[in-house]
Specification:
11 helices; 30% helix; 27% strand; four-stranded antiparallel sheet; 15 strands
Length: 335
């Protein structure tokens, strides 16, 4: 419990951003479409196209996204060691001119970058003309925290008793929060961290989920776990790209279908633990709850003999409800 308290106390500075994610003006999701596939054999992204197209009417073009876990080192352009050990931070630049300033402020001082590159996109004119809003330019950074920077973070927040890797996880989480706060929540939405877990990616746009696969050329990308989401928001500000699913904690990505009936109570539970949502949608708090239970309280760790097996069960407080279509949530984790 001492380690848990220290980790949550280190987030106290984040509570000043609480008004940015007000509990009174979040968007609600309607009868969205969700898909999840898990396989011992890597599957190409093209296998999601059929189900997603079939669920096209479960979205309204205001948000589509996918997550992939268990990637191929060759396709990612890195070694297996880098893919397994590095954080795969993906930053979505809504205004590409923002990239240099963001990298100078947050990437270069904090991370040792083993590889970075811009994600290639489609040039198909028919596809491009069908998109209401231009998708973001996405850059991938395979990186680890710089030792001196991480040591300072641990000392400042009294996290010496935390396992070094778990302290680094928290450093990455808080650094991404700083990026999202400055470049998304308190600006004119110029950039945000799309995902930052190990061996996983999230891609999302204002549009449909099948457009994500086609635009970012994911048809042949192989992964062991895929989730996809067709968004159908029913109220609130439905236009912003960061509101599309999946949402991420650290190594988790979650999609959700239905109204989140107990959003306010879960938000208060998180607020008491210095956990602050920034993306103006009720679904975000679900994955933040998974993350705090996983990393702060370690409720996903179940001892099994000499090893520890990680399992995930939806907490009672994270379940939504919908009177018409029911509720479904799908979570992918790289842990």
């Amino acid at each position: 419990m001492e380690e848990t308290k220290a980790l949550l106390d280190s987030r106290e500075w984040m509570t000043s951003s609480r008004s940015l994610g007000s509990t009174s003006s979040q968007e609600a999701e309607g009868g969205c479409g969700v898909i999840g596939i898990a396989s011992t054999v890597p599957l190409a992204g093209k296998h999601l196209l059929g189900p997603l197209v079939q669920m096209h009417n479960r979205g309204n073009g205001k948000g589509g996204g996918i997550a992939a876990v268990g990637l191929s080192p060759d396709q990612m352009g890195v070694t297996k060691r880098v893919l397994d050990e590095d954080y795969l931070i993906q930053v979505a630049y809504l205004k590409p001119a923002t990239r240099v300033a963001l990298e100078d402020e947050f990437i270069k001082p904090n991370y040792k970058v083993d590889k970075k590159y811009r994600v290639e996109v489609s040039t198909d004119k028919t596809l491009l003309s069908s998109l209401e809003i231009a998708p973001p330019e996405v850059w991938r950074y395979f990186c680890r925290a710089k030792k001196e920077t991480l040591d300072g973070f641990i000392k400042k927040n009294k996290l010496e008793k935390l396992e070094p890797r778990k302290a680094e996880d928290e450093f990455v989480y808080q650094t991404s929060f700083k990026i999202n706060k400055k470049y998304y929540a308190t600006s004119d939405m110029t950039a945000f961290v799309m995902s930052h877990g190990r061996n996983m990616i999230v891609m999302k746009i204002v549009g449909y989920a099948e457009d994500v696969i086609r635009y970012y050329g994911l048809e042949d990308l192989k992964a062991h776990v895929w989730i996809g989401h067709q968004r159908y928001p029913t109220k609130g500000r439905v236009w912003h790209p960061g509101g599309a699913h999946p949402f991420v904690g650290l190594d988790e990505a979650l999609v959700h279908n239905g109204d989140f009936a107990n959003y306010h109570s879960v938000s208060e539970y998180l607020a008491q633990r210095n956990v602050v949502p920034l993306f103006l949608t009720d679904t975000e708090v679900s994955v933040l709850l998974f993350d705090v239970l996983n990393r702060a309280y370690r409720r996903s760790e179940r001892p099994t003999g000499r090893s520890r097996r990680r399992t995930y069960t939806a907490p009672r407080t994270a379940r939504g409800s919908s009177s018409s279509a029911g509720t479904a949530s799908t979570t992918a984790s790289s842990s």
